[in-house]
Amino acid sequence: MDENVILKVLAMWTLFSSCFASSLKFPPVVPALFVIGDSSVDCGTNNFLGTFARANHLPYGRDFDTHQPTGRFSNGRIPVDYLATRLGLPLVPSYLGQAGDVQDMIHGVNYASAGAGIIFSSGSELGQHISFAQQVQQFTDTLQQFIISMGEDAATELISDSVFYISIGINDYIHYYLLNVSNVDNLYLPWSFNQFLASSVRQEIKNLYNLNVRKVVLTGLAPIGCAPQYLWQYGSMDILKNHESYGFNVTNEACCGYGKYKGWIMCLSPEMACSNASNHIWWDQFHPTDAVNAILADNIWNGQHTKMCHPMNLEDMHKSKATHPLIVRGPLSALYASENINDTRTEVILRIAMQTKRRLTPNTASSLISRFA
Ligand SMILES: *[C@@H]1O[C@H](CO)[C@@H](O)[C@H](O)[C@H]1NC(C)=O
Ligand SMILES: *[C@@H]1O[C@H](CO)[C@@H](O)[C@H](O)[C@H]1NC(C)=O
Ligand SMILES: *[C@@H]1O[C@H](CO)[C@@H](O)[C@H](O)[C@H]1NC(C)=O
Ligand SMILES: *[C@@H]1O[C@H](CO)[C@@H](O)[C@H](O)[C@H]1NC(C)=O
């Protein structure tokens, strides 16, 4: 065997075992959790791609269950890990990190890829990624495997009872507004760009619906995946406002990185990280700490700390027996609802992108791009 092949098999095994670190102890609340998105929920996809948007090195993962880097963009768990636990499921494996046996995918699959956006080319400056539409296609392939293995009726039942978690959109703003790729400033006014993104998301959700997906959590833009100093300025997020009661006393500086707000040079090595991330909101300049991810998952599940989902939280969605598709919308996902396209939170995101663009120099651009991935 070629050395590279052996290394890849080893890497896949490491990822596989870490994703299955917790075993199923109780009957799960739902049969499976499927995840689509960007770096806010990537659990290892990009480890298999040629890209700068990777978190497969320490200190990433240092506070994870295995204390090893897995590809997650945090010091520990990401929100879907906490949600999987809430649902009584094992941690969901990444699509590229498992061998493709139905048995390994039966409790869900994570297709998320750092850098990915709603628009195919968003994030391409960083290298390879799996776009939103490609992730939906990968899910279609998974579903085909389920149908072959367990029959159409059982596969349909499994899918319609399962939860789909979609967290995507920020990279479309970054790569189109921030960097003015493809002359997009001239092609779209901000509000029509919103509308374009929203209609693309709606179309993909329709595609999922046609595959019998019925329970969707759409978090929209990563809840707080933006430059902390800007969010602090505009900040209306509960965690930022009430940081002290949550035990966070470091709110605008990341745990890992270098320079002002630890944001000028990305988090590259263990020496660049603070010793204890648990009192920080930000792990690196653009991704929250494990402690914040736990709170986000609690809020999505039952609004434990603050009501964050509309029109209902995930627990209520699970209990309701409605047959129409249920979409729980998280913070900033108003962006995707056409009736609310001018939502003030959307405006904040746009303003952040615009302001940051003016401050960009070629030298800081590339580091910013990777931070936003
Ligand atoms: C975006 O790029 C186009 C040309 O590709 C240019 O005409 C336009 O002025 C740029 N916009 C900004 C805000 O830099
Ligand atoms: C945050 O609190 C810890 C103790 O829990 C303390 O060591 C640290 O200096 C504090 N940091 C700030 C910025 O207040
Ligand atoms: C980090 O700090 C928290 C309190 O802020 C404490 O409970 C925890 O034990 C500390 N962890 C380590 C590894 O020192
Ligand atoms: C959103 O705001 C813009 C600019 O203020 C306005 O031109 C547009 O009509 C608004 N769109 C909706 C759907 O309200």
Automatic annotation (TrEMBL):
Coiled coil: none annotated. The keyword Hydrolase applies. Residues 1-21 form the signal peptide. It comes from the Eukaryota. It holds the Pfam family Lipase_GDSL. Keywords: Hydrolase, Lipid degradation, Lipid metabolism, Signal. Belongs to the 'GDSL' lipolytic enzyme family. This is Uncharacterized protein. It comes from Stylosanthes scabra.
